[in-house]
Write a structure and sequence with these properties.
The chain has twelve helices and ten strands.
Length: 276
């Protein structure tokens, strides 16, 4: 099975549509299968106390100004929808509240995404599952019992899904990756399992693919040094291009597991092998 590669733009566009388009260009050039954004209704997701707290950012001096500055509205998403069609790449978004999920319903998207923090938001999960679109469900910060409850919602709605193994630390230390959980989840829940990574570098993500991850999600950025909470754990253009190449090479190299002697080997065998 071909690993489905998602380039997570998230909020790395910093509220700038031109930057978002450049990130879409990067993902398309790297031959990713999709780009992903994040959608929030700021006043719903965050408390007034949290939004009122001081926070210096390019948009002002409060957390509210920062959060609002990072959000795209209908005009921007209309253009993202048009631009992704032009670039022949799918797009999806993880909604953090029901209003945002309903906002996304106006677009003819092939996929939905449940972000790890939302896995226990059962009302939101019912809303997503009712659409019956193929859904990627991240499992960071989640117990097996919580994952079971989420899966039951999707199965009760007969909504196709796959899990994504995830460790929600930023950046993730390789010792915390625990990639064998991919196999554990696959066997426990009898479903496809991908990997959503927040580590630096390419090794862990590549190993996840070798272990059978059916999807792979990594944040992308134009420059890891620019403002933003996710920029430092993101891949720059050269990094996502290398990762896609590695993933496709790994999948070809894994083969079918059947031991055979290739025709190319037989000629070499006649030259080199000694039978006694």
């Amino acid at each position: 099975m071909r690993t489905f590669i998602i380039a997570e733009i998230g909020i790395n566009h910093n509220g700038d549509l031109d930057m978002a388009k450049k990130l879409i260009d990067t993902a398309a050039l790297a031959r990713c299968d999709a780009v992903k954004f994040q959608k929030r209704t700021v006043e719903t997701v965050y408390s007034k106390e949290d939004l009122d707290r001081p926070r210096e950012s390019p948009w002002g001096t409060t957390n509210r100004e920062q959060k609002n500055g990072l959000e795209f509205g209908k005009e921007e998403y209309d253009e993202i929808n048009r631009y992704c069609k032009e670039k022949n790449i799918e797009w999806l978004a993880s909604a953090w509240d029901i209003e945002s999920q309903r906002f996304l319903q106006q677009y003819d998207l092939m996929y939905n995404k449940v972000a790890s923090p939302m896995l226990t938001h059962r009302e939101l999960l019912h809303e997503i599952a009712s659409e019956k679109r193929y859904t990627f469900v991240s499992t960071g910060m989640s117990t097996m019992e919580e994952i079971t409850a989420a899966i039951n919602i999707f199965r009760n709605h007969e909504c196709p899904f796959e899990l994504m193994h995830c460790t929600s630390t930023y950046p993730m230390n390789p010792k915390d990756a625990n990639l064998r959980v991919i196999k554990t989840l696959r066997e426990e829940f009898n479903c496809d399992v991908g990997y959503s990574g927040h580590e630096s570098g390419l090794v862990i993500s590549s190993a996840a693919v070798a272990l059978g991850a059916t999807s792979l999600e990594r944040h992308i950025t134009l420059d890891r040094t620019i403002y933003g909470s996710d920029q430092a754990v993101s891949l720059e253009p050269s990094g996502i291009m290398k990762l896609v190449k590695y993933v496709r090479a790994i999948q070809v190299g894994m083969g079918d597991g059947i031991k055979v002697v290739l025709e190319k080997e037989k000629e070499i065998s006649r030259k080199l092998r000694i039978y006694t």
